[in-house]
Amino acid sequence: MSANKFRGTGVALVTPFKNDKTVDFKALEKLVDFVIEGGVDYLVALGTTAETPTLSHAEKLDILINIIERNNHRVPLVCGLGGNNTHEVIKQFETYPMEKLDAILSVSPYYNKPSQSGIIAHYKEIDKHCPVPIILYNVPGRTGSNMLPATTLQLANECEHITGMKEASGNMVQCMELVKNKPKHFTLLSGDDNLAMAQIACGFDGVISVAANCFPNEFCELIQSSLKHAFTHAQKLQYKLLDGLDLLFTEGNPSGVKCVLSELGICENELRLPMMPVSHATHESIKGFLKKLA
After folding, report:
1. Does 281 reside within a domain?
2. Catalytic machinery residues
3. What is the DSSP string of 227-286?
4. Number of structural domains the chain divides into
5. Is residue 26 a contact partner of residue 266, using CB atoms and an 8 Å limit?
6. 249-262, pLDDT tens digit by residue?
7. pTM
């Protein structure tokens, strides 16, 4: 599949839970329909937004299969498959339905803070075994280490399956270095909803979004307007959504998202520890924003 398939808006789906904290598969189906009907270009299953650290392996597989069946080939599907144990990441290719995936999103090793050469070796080993395209994911605020542009560009040029990157460093100069020097086939995707318009203006190809769970129509229109360089319209949408984007992350992700989705009647406002629902004050602010957005 061409990396161009991931141009536009991908949505990092949340995992809905019932009041007893079990996975709410009916709500997940409702969410898949909601975002596809709202205009997203592809789905991302089992990313950080899905609270994957709290899910068992069996739950992850059940969630992925549920999304595959509900999507029913309507849009491409990416699955989060990464970690800080290279061997364990590769082993997962044997148990996941890889033939049903259009790509994986593989986060840079977290917590153990490998060197740049360690990051390169990690991804090169994954590249040898992965049967589908690989989208790198750089998110230093979560991993504790930053993939430097030289590291990304080496992987982009030397690895058969590495076709794109979700870049969430928040460093716009780093983003521009990537755009300036990337190979033609390599897709650059924003990992920061509030920076996506600016990054597309610099040459990015789209976004893997948290906010598209909540505001798919408006957010997808913002991204498409930006990709068409219709920035006057894009700016209006950006500032219409800006307060809401901030509120989504005020008390952690996906706490804000689940608050919005509960207000929209899509899923319960339930999370698994250590994540918690947002405070009453933030909840009231979110309700106020949704009234203005309506």
Report:
1. no
2. 137, 166
3. HTT-HHHHHHHHHHHHHHHHHHHTT-TTHHHHHHHHHTTSS-S---TT--PPPHHHHHHH
4. 1
5. no
6. 999 999 999 999 99
7. 0.96
